Known about the structure:
This protein has 270 residues and is mainly beta. Helix content is 10%, strand content 41%. The protein folds into two domains: 51-187, Jelly Rolls (Sandwich), CATH 2.60.120; 194-266, Jelly Rolls. Strand 17 and strand 18 form a beta hairpin.
Amino acid sequence: xxxxxxxxxxxxxxxxxxxxxxxxxxxxxxxxxxxxxxxxxxxxxxxxxxxxxxxxxxxxxxxxxxxxxxxxxxxxxxxxxxxxxxxxxxxxxxxxxxxxxxxxxxxxxxxxxxxxxxxxxxxxxxxxxxxxxxxxxxxxxxxxxxxxxxxxxxxxxxxxxxxxxxxxxxxxxxxxxxxxxxxxxxxxxxxxxxxxxxxxxxxxxxxxxxxxxxxxxxxxxxxxxxxxxxxxxxxxxxxxxxxxxxxxxxxxxxxxxxxxxxxxxxxxxx
Length: 270
């Protein structure tokens, strides 16, 4: 087992007090906790995200679109598991009605894009898969775990008047103006096995109180484990809530009875 290094990232839309077990340094607004990808799994990035304000309306390119636009980084598909939400919290994903490029540009410029988006009320246990090209925004009062391709490309379309750079030309080129389909979302009780996502780049499973070594049965490649509740004994080392670890195929994995965790596999590993 390799315990991944945590990195706390300040964001203007972050929070002053992080939920346990995380601790925000005094005077810092922390919006994200990153787990640095290990050399054996460089293509997948896991984050916690905590919001006190809405994030920008944004979009990410696919690998092919990133290459076509001359980017040096790859594209980004991602997914979100909501672990806490304040009353009325929402996630903006896709549009209420189909939107063409010209209408999307106009809406981004005049700010009406926010009203054209579909804002999904959320609660703990809601899961959303965000394919590349999906216009999205995380609302205020949400805590979630994000699994994504390791990429730093974000095209902001609208930022509520904040003085940050927008990327309308590139963003409109890659954005999909479609309605977000029901197939990309689900709600689960977070206490049982669920196959949450199986995209082209990674898969995400929610597992609960697995028997010894069941997580690694039949797997000949490393994978990531993120405890949501409880703890996991991995070859004698304890993994707790707030941690993320890379597990090797020969590691012995023992879940406590109260453990629920995410298991993330990189589908592009050779």
